[in-house]
Amino acid sequence: MADLLEYQCPCCAGKVEFDPNSQQMKCPYCESEFTVEALQAANESEEPSGDQLNWETPGSDWSDGETDGMQVYTCKSCGGQIIADQTTGASACPYCDNPIVMTGQFSGDLRPDFVIPFKLDKEAAKKALLQHFEGKKFVPKVFKDDHHIDEIKGVYVPVWLFDAQAEGQFSYHAEKVRRWSDDRFNYKEISHFKVTRRGKIAFEQVPVDGSSKMDDTLMESIEPFDFKGAVPFQTPYLSGYLADKYDVTAEQSIDHANERIRQSVADEMRKTVIGYDTVQTEHSGIQLDNAKAKYALYPVWLLNISWNGEKFTFAMNGQTGRFVGNLPLDKGAAVKSFCITALIAAVIVFILLYLFNR
To answer: Quick count: other Cβ atoms within 10 Å of Cβ 284?
Structure first.
């Protein structure tokens, strides 16, 4: 029995002792009792061994002649490289709106696995911009009436899509607190528990933007894209549009994908631990199975507007029409509205105090 003195309590991690009265193993700290078999099983069970997040990244190449007629344009300002066919005029960078120049024939890099074709045209993007102005009472009226759309560009943004089966193992230290009182004292009892969870979650098309030039906030704000609308990539889909040349590789995007998966698994596991007053994660481990990355192009309309010496960029999901973008603030109107609201609130408080003190 000497070896059992080294066992830890599964509830509070204290050293467990054999109790001759109950003929069971008992923790002198939290007073939990266990059979010998149960204690051995609890102590011999393996804690989560940490994360094992390994991915198979794409490696599809272009076919002979498939890139004929495709040109590369380079932005003089931000250095972005844009791909387009010979029929597509490209005079300005869709991201920073600075001039771009053709630098030669496109070659190299990976071939996309999928593309979501544009469902909405340029006129739909213009209409969405006007609708975006509606209801924005603090946007300067002169901006609505006298803005200048520098250029509207349809751009295929490179996106890495991560699929995996994630298995998570988590252990938690949980507590239940009970309070009561009598005529003399207030009492507090804390019960300690060791809680374990294990489960699998399937992830499909976890997106990570493959372009450092595309504003991540804009890109994430126009999500989600419906992957059911994706088709195997063919070069004719690029006709009349620009395509951003990825500068963030799948390998460089893995950490971002892992973080999204890790957080999602942790959140789902934690939701199942209920009925306790406090819960703290002690150990966790996530293993990925059949983890693969795909390369896709997502359709985005980018609108650059010049006003009052500033540039404003707006983005629209070229598949669903979701539209986002920051608008200028009419500070005078905002301050006036705040003052009026504050004045009304002050009058209401004054009236209530007057009625209360009568």
So the answer is: 19
Cα separation, 98 vs 76, in Å, equals: 7
The pLDDT, as a whole number, for residue 171 is 93
- Asked whether the predicted pLDDT for residue 261 surpasses 50, the reply is yes
Q: For the chain, list the strands marked E by DSSP.
A: 17-19, 24-26, 33-34, 70-75, 81-85, 100-105, 114-115, 148-181, 186-209, 231-232, 242-244, 278-307, 310-317, 323-325
Domain spans, the chain: 1-45, 70-169+193-327, 330-358
Q: In this structure, what are the phi and psi dihedrals at residue 228, rounded to the nearest 5 degrees?
A: -65, -20
Q: Give the dihedral of Cα atoms 93, 98, 99, 105; nearest 10 deg.
A: -30
Lowest mean pLDDT among 10-14, 76-80, 129-133, 199-203: 10-14
If you search the block for the tokens 């001759």, which residue do you land on? 20
CA distance 227 to 320: 11
